[in-house]
Specification:
The complex is a heterodimer of chains A (984) and B (420). By secondary structure, chain A is mainly beta. Chain A is 9% helix and 51% strand. In chain A, strand 36 and strand 37 form a beta hairpin. The radius of gyration of chain A is 31 Å and the shape is globular. Chain B has a domain of 280 residues: Alpha Horseshoe (Serine Threonine Protein Phosphatase 5, Tetratricopeptide repeat). Chain B is globular, with a radius of gyration of 27 Å. Classes of the chains: A mainly beta (984), B mainly alpha (420).
């Protein structure tokens, strides 16, 4: 794209010189103004190109421009501005001055926007029959954004960020159009400037309810220009065997041939912890209920400071963007924090009109101290405080910590150090005007060092322990593309073709070691441990290589038909499998005929797309493997490990999309609608084989199917627009309905090994749906004593609903992921002031609260304490005891339904108020622009959720189906965000 | 138009080039997998490891079989709260209580895997060995693979091989006997007396098991012949599974000494004074646990395997003597039977038996087998054939109907094996 503008620019220069020399014919000058058609506001920076002479200009601050020495006659102008629809119009030049006003209409639905992801080359959105969502960072500059996930949250219909409680360094799981895979990761693949980035979540404590980071959050959100999101197979076909979960491509900022612009911004964020329920406990001695407020008392105001400096600019031959960012955060819980340093340098070279090269390098250093939710099941910060008991308060345990003193918990360390370098080089070469070759080489290297340290003398581990995990991940991307466009048949048709090849080399190496038995206090390193608990190493390597071709035929700027195919080979496929082919076809139709018939409609585009993509199995799932290990005294053996499957294929998604974009009512309302239906076939499920065949581990096979369908609707409306004020609303709603359609011969199974959570894979339901026992509504309880003797909550048990055979009925209790989600965004601007308010919501899903379950089990919830008090009261009537027994049955930990509750919510997610300072009074300071923003995030949630914390807290990002489970998790704090931004 | 043609040609050439260079990248998708060994990587250098694996896998299965069968039987009792073990102790064979891992399934799976590994090792070593006819590693693979089948058939009604159809316990014993004959052949070819004796002893064991399950006395005579051959080849014939802390562990102390799985009043032979000696039998070593049941009976720890690296014997000369004793008894020669038993008693440091009464000698034989093979996984079969199941358990719980029969093929094998 840049290339094209650049060529245009050069042409313009040449033509200007040429026309100057011939200025003796009859000429006139064009005094033009480019304005917004509705508000009549001047559009500073809009460009005009006069097609007949290839001469152009751009509008000044008042929207004006002048082109001199035009020969008298008819001309066609092509007028463009970011965020507006391109205008092709004709005008006449007569001798002398000609005043012409060009009115541009806002492009509410972004059809003119150029996207890169999924199309092979930069393409206007209207040419594509499949959906590409994008988030333009410049439009959300005033939002309180401190991470990439904040940037995307609520802005991409159909994308759900599940879990993640907002502790420092904590990230959420990302699901686009649900969970397509039952066995493989459902995280989308991430590209940054054309280069694959490792997308695995990581944390200090991977196995034990630990918090995890999202790899997306390694990217500095201030470096982002825009993000493009492909949601499914129809759009992501060209990404082949890794694209079933969608593709997120991040584009970072670039310099341009302009004076150097420095930007300094700082944000100071305060985190206000949520207020939790107190802990209650019945005191048999006094007959009263004691309470304790330890959890709230131990919380504090969190604080994050963030500083970012960037410089961008360049000349015609070299341009650059570079930035340095530093942030430091202290969490709302003691000992939790995160600090990071992020550097980026993007340099572009334009040595001549045919060549254009870029080199991007980013370095990220992150250091996170995680809050210890629970170590050894219940120890840790929240284990002790969420379950605090007044009866255990003592000098050692002033907070009523039932498992280990808080001092002990604070002395532990649970940290992750991450270093990451992402570098890429990209070269574009125009072989001919309409034939370009481009190549990209990218490298993502990251190293994690996780430490879990328990000092000597701890209650949990009296002799202390230390675990270290060092993981190194490397991803190499090599990408080559050739694109060629030309007219065909006659002037009505043209075509563009892209062919390309892409290879990705992915390696992962992890070493773990843990020791115990320190000699005494003060020993903090591995060599201080007298006993080696474990040492291990794991390695994964995947090579994917594919080539693709795509052809697009255009008919009179109105109809676009795109066909394409990708072939992939992959080291993780079974040896009997050759290349996999993924085809696609899409049609885009600009329905100007319909628009002409309908007065209220200003534009309509219809589209349909079909495409396939894949998801590769794990690195070595296809291989038959043995584990060499010590088996007897000093003797090693070869233990059968993985049965292997030489026919192992990628999972394959086949997706069909239909949609339209339209602008209605004099461009006041824009609608963007998509319906999709997809089917994942060959979905991988682990099938157990008879042990008498030698292998005890279940083998992945392509036997399952998952069906999805849904819709995404985005509406943008401008309610009010004048010269200096504007009010617009952008609302979205997405529905995603999924079910496991076929499980081969594998029977329904629980999708986690943890004892409490209830996600199941069952035919006919959403993957990971909650299932379990339910109370019998007619007779909810059983008693171990006669009702008159009932005096303890422990004498009551829940009576589960039973099926015809007398077994506990196994009931559907709710979806793991919301089927409906979306957001409503209000933007109001008046002069220099901007006000933005965003709500987001999610409906039709449920969450399992392990915390509530534990609190009831330990009787520290208000409800349990009250029931116990009344039961112990000798004056309680039999009738009341029956009521209490029914209440107590709802606290039976064995009845799953008691702990799964609707998690539907509507949330005030973002509010921001910003002031753009006048340039005059800052000019003396050398500041061109300044902005002050006061904002809030996660301010209020309306929900009927009965579990502990927030409906969206909890869940481990690295685990496919734990997003619906919360265990001793803390709720996301509210944020107050102050930011200042200066441009020099 | 010319430039269009030119660019078209360029595109074509580049496309062809791309496809060919892609296709030419032979081995592009080869990745290394250092954590594991693949089929192709098992070569001569790993032949010893291959030959040792059946022993380790058999050891895993054996430990499970001992715990399972002694819980169902009277060797061990469970006083903890894990529902599955409680139910096993009450004699339930096939239960899924409490969502626990399932001992009867896991025992079957571990032994089933060991049995497969025996066959697989034999097959691999026949390719890897320079002289398969005399390769003792192959003989040992036969022995441990065959023993896996024997322990399966001792406990389960039917046995499957390599995901195939179920065969009866008697057919399974014949398969095992085939392995032991092959082992014998190799041991004799190699001139290895120790392994020759072990092979004979294994044959004696399997024929005795056939007798135990069928009551067919000709099987017992065959067993006695092999027992005599074994003792002739090596009067101290012994084979133990070699456990180690760093490898396959003897998990009996781990499970049995945590105060949950105990030796208690259900086991009749604890602290029972050995006939004629008025001393506790040293072959049933127990430690004071201090726990006392509601009935007033004491609980004990087992001390036969105090450490997780303690080996478990699977072939012993004492067994050969007891097979001979049983054969003599069934043939009516009580004095010879008593003499065979007394050989074992002297080794254990106990006084001799003296009797001429066949019934009394049989009772002593049962006692000798119970104490000699305590915690070696042999009691379940004896309890069945001599009808020794009690009518009630320690906790007063009812005995499940059918406790005195073998365990059916477990659910996981039934669900996964297409031939069932």
């Amino acid at each position: 794209m840049l290339n094209r503008y650049f060529l245009t620019f050069l042409t313009f220069c040449f033509v200007s010189i040429f026309s100057f020399q011939q200025a003796n014919a009859q000429t006139g000058s064009l005094l033009g103004t480019i304005i917004d058609a509705q508000s009549n506001e001047p559009l500073t920076g809009a460009t005009i190109m006069i097609e007949e002479i290839g001469q152009g200009a751009s509008a000044d601050f008042d929207g004006n421009f002048t082109i001199e020495n035009l020969e008298v006659g008819e001309y066609t102008a092509d007028v463009r501005f970011v965020g507006y629809r391109a205008l092709q119009t004709s005008f006449t030049i007569s001798e002398g001055e000609n005043e012409v006003t060009f009115e541009l209409r806002e492009d509410l639905i972004g059809l003119e926007e150029v996207v890169v992801t999924g199309a092979g080359v930069a393409t206007e959105r209207r040419r594509l029959g499949s959906t590409v969502s994008s988030v333009d960072a410049s439009r959300v500059e005033t939002s309180p954004i401190s991470s990439m996930q904040d940037l995307l949250s609520g802005r991409v219909p159909g994308m759900v960020q599940a879990g993640g409680g907002g502790a420092p360094g904590e990230g959420a799981a990302i699901r686009i159009r649900g969970s397509a895979s039952l066995s493989m990761s459902n995280e989308p693949v991430i590209y940054i400037d054309g280069v694959r980035m490792d997308n695995r979540a990581s944390g200090a404590d991977q196995s034990n309810h630990g918090l995890q980071s999202s790899p997306l959050n390694d990217i500095n959100p201030d470096d982002i220009e825009r993000v493009e999101i492909l949601k499914g197979a129809a759009a992501a076909t060209l990404y082949g065997s890794e694209a079933n979960n969608g593709v997120i491509q991040v584009f970072t900022k670039r310099g341009s041939a302009d004076d150097t612009k420095f930007t300094f911004n700082t944000s100071q964020t305060f985190y206000v912890p949520k207020t939790y329920d107190r802990n209650y406990q019945y005191n048999a001695g006094t007959g009263e209920i004691d309470t304790i407020n330890s959890l709230n008392e131990e919380h504090r105001l969190g604080y994050r400071q963030n500083y970012n400096i960037s410089a961008q600019g360049g000349s015609e031959t070299v341009n650059y963007f570079s930035s340095v960012a530093f942030s430091d955060q202290t969490g709302v819980t003691p000992s939790a924090g995160n600090s990071n340093v992020r550097l980026r340098s993007n340099i572009g070279f334009v040595p001549n009109e045919r060549v254009n090269a870029r080199m991007n390098v980013a370095y990220i250093s992150q250091s996170t101290d995680y809050v210890q939710l629970a170590t050894g099941a219940t120890h840790g910060f929240s284990g002790n405080l969420i379950l605090a008991q007044p009866s255990v308060v003592s000098e050692d345990r002033p907070l009523g910590e039932p498992f280990s003193p808080m001092s002990d918990n604070y002395a532990r360390e649970n940290s992750l150090e991450r270093d990451r370098v992402i570098a890429s080089a990209n070269l574009n070469y125009s072989i001919l005007d309409n034939l370009n070759l481009s190549g990209t080489f990218g490298y993502d290297w990251l190293s994690d060092e996780a430490v879990q340290f328990i000092p000597f003398g701890s209650v949990l581990e009296p002799t202390g322990s230390l675990s270290n995990r060092i993981a190194t991940k490397e991803l190499l991307t090599v990408d080559l593309k050739l694109d060629w466009s030309s007219p065909i048949f006659n002037d009505n048709f043209s075509q563009s073709t892209v062919i390309g090849a892409q290879s990705i080399f992915d390696t992962f190496n992890e070493k773990t070691v843990s020791v115990t038995d320190f000699a005494g206090a003060g020993v903090t390193n591995l060599s201080g441990g007298a006993t080696l608990l474990s040492a291990g190493e794991s390695y994964e390597e995947v090579i994917n290589a594919g080539f693709f071709g795509q052809n697009q035929i255009e008919y009179r700027d109105r109809v676009y038909v795109t066909t394409g195919i990708r072939f992939d080979g992959n080291s993780a496929f079974g040896e009997n499998l050759g290349l996999q082919a993924y085809p696609k076809i899409s049609v885009s139709y600009i329905a100007s005929g319909i628009v002409d018939q309908l007065d209220f409609m200003t534009s309509l585009r219809l589209r349909a797309a079909y495409g396939e993509s894949g998801l590769q199995p794990g690195s070595f799932d296809a291989q038959r493997t043995f584990l060499a290990e010590s088996i007897l005294d000093g003797v090693s053996g070869i233990i059968p490990n993985n049965l292997g499957n030489p026919d192992l294929k990628p999972e394959r998604s086949k997706e069909f999309e239909l949609g339209f974009e339209t602008e209605l009512f004099d461009d006041r309302l824009g609608l963007d609608f998509t319906y999709f239906r997809s089917r994942t076939t060959d979905a991988l499920l682990a099938r157990p084989y008879p042990a008498t065949q030698g292998f005890l581990n279940a083998q992945l096979e392509n036997i399952a199917e998952v069906e999805s369908q849904g819709f995404e609707l985005r509406a943008q409306t401008t309610l009010h627009r004048t010269q200096n004020s504007q009010w617009s609303i952008n609302a979205s709603i997405a529905g995603t309905y999924q079910e496991v359609a076929n499980m081969g011969e594998v029977s329904a199974f629980k999708a986690t090994t943890r004892p409490r959570p209830s996600p199941y894979i069952i035919e006919g339901y959403q993957p990971g749906a909650h299932f379990g026992s339910k109370l019998d509504p007619d007779q909810p309880y059983n008693l171990s004593v006669p009702i008159e003797e009932l005096n303890d909550i422990g004498q009551v048990s829940g009576n589960a609903l039973r099926d015809a055979d007398g077994n506990e009925a196994f009931e559907f209790l709710g979806n793991m992921l919301p089927t409906i989600s979306g957001s409503i965004q209000n933007s109001y601007s008046y002069g220099n002031l901007d006000l933005n308010v965003m709500f987001d919501y999610a409906l039709d899903y449920a969450k399992h609260s392990g915390t509530r379950q534990l609190r009831s089990q330990l009787r520290v919830s208000e409800e349990a304490a009250n029931i116990q008090r009344e039961l112990q009261d000798a004056s309680t009537s039999i009738q009341r005891k029956e009521e209490l027994a029914a209440q107590a049955a709802r606290l039976d930990i064995g009845i799953t339904d008691n702990w799964v509750s609707d998690a539907d919510f509507f949330r005030l997610q973002e509010v921001s108020f910003s002031y753009n300072a006048q340039t005059e009074w800052l000019e003396g300071l050398g500041v061109n622009r300044a902005r002050f923003t006061l904002a809030g995030r996660n301010l209020y949630t309306w929900t009927g959720y009965e579990g502990f914390g927030d409906p969206d807290s909890g869940g481990a990002a690295s685990q496919n189906f734990l997003a619906g489970y919360e265990y001793l998790h803390l709720a996301s704090p509210s944020q107050i965000h102050l930011s200042l931004r200066f441009e020099f | 138009m010319e430039s269009t043609m030119k660019s078209f040609k360029t595109t074509f050439v580049l496309a062809i080039f791309a496809i060919f260079s892609f296709a030419a990248c032979d081995g592009l998708f080869e990745v290394s997998n250092p954590s594991f060994i693949t089929d192709d990587e098992i070569d001569e250098g790993l032949a010893d490891a291959v030959g040792n694996t059946p022993e380790a896998l058999f050891g895993e299965g054996l430990v499970r079989a001992i715990l399972m069968s002694d819980l169902i039987g009277d060797g061990l009792m469970f006083v903890g709260s894990v529902t599955e073990y409680q139910r096993l102790d009450q004699g339930y064979h096939d239960i899924r209580a409490g969502g626990r891992t399932f001992t009867v399934d896991e025992t079957y799976n571990a032994l089933g895997q060991a049995q497969w590994m025996g066959d697989d090792s034999v097959e691999r070593l026949q390719d890897l060995s320079e002289n398969p006819a005399q390769d003792l590693r192959i003989a040992r693979s036969h022995i441990f693979g065959g023993l896996s089948t024997v322990v399966l058939a001792d406990n389960y009604e039917q046995v499957t091989f390599d995901g195939g159809p179920a065969v009866s316990d008697m057919e399974a014993y014949d398969v095992a006997a085939g392995h032991f004959n092959d082992a014998l052949q190799i041991a004799q070819n190699a001139g290895d007396t120790e392994l020759t004796a072990v092979s004979y002893a294994a044959l004696a064991r399997v024929w005795h098991a056939k007798y135990a399950e069928s009551g067919n006395e000709t099987f017992l005579a065959t067993a006695a012949d092999y027992a005599t051959d074994a003792l002739q080849a090596d009067e101290n014939v012994t084979l133990e599974v070699r456990f180690s802390i760093s490898g396959t562990q003897n998990n009996i102390p781990n499970f049995a000494n945590r105060g949950q799985i105990d030796v208690g009043p259900s086991y009749d032979y604890i602290r029972r004074e050995s006939p004629y000696t008025n001393e506790p039998d040293p072959r049933v070593p127990v430690g004071e646990f201090g726990g006392v049941l509601a009935t007033g009976d004491s609980l004990y720890f087992q001390e036969k395997f105090p450490d997780r690296s303690d080996n478990i014997p699977v072939i012993r000369f004492q067994e050969m003597n007891l097979i001979n004793a049983e054969h003599q008894l069934v043939s009516g020669s009580v004095a010879d039977a008593v003499e065979y038993m007394n050989i074992n008693r002297r080794v254990a440091g106990l006084g001799d038996y003296e009797t001429t009464d066949g019934d009394e000698a049989l009772e002593w034989l049962i006692y000798e087998r119970a104490t000699e093979f305590w915690l070696e996984g042999r009691r379940f079969q004896d309890m069945r054939r001599f009808d020794l199941f009690p009518t009630a358990r320690w906790a007063g719980g009812a005995i499940e109907e059918g406790t005195d029969r073998k365990i059916p093929i477990p659910i996981t094998e039934q669900n996964t094996n297409p031939n069932l």
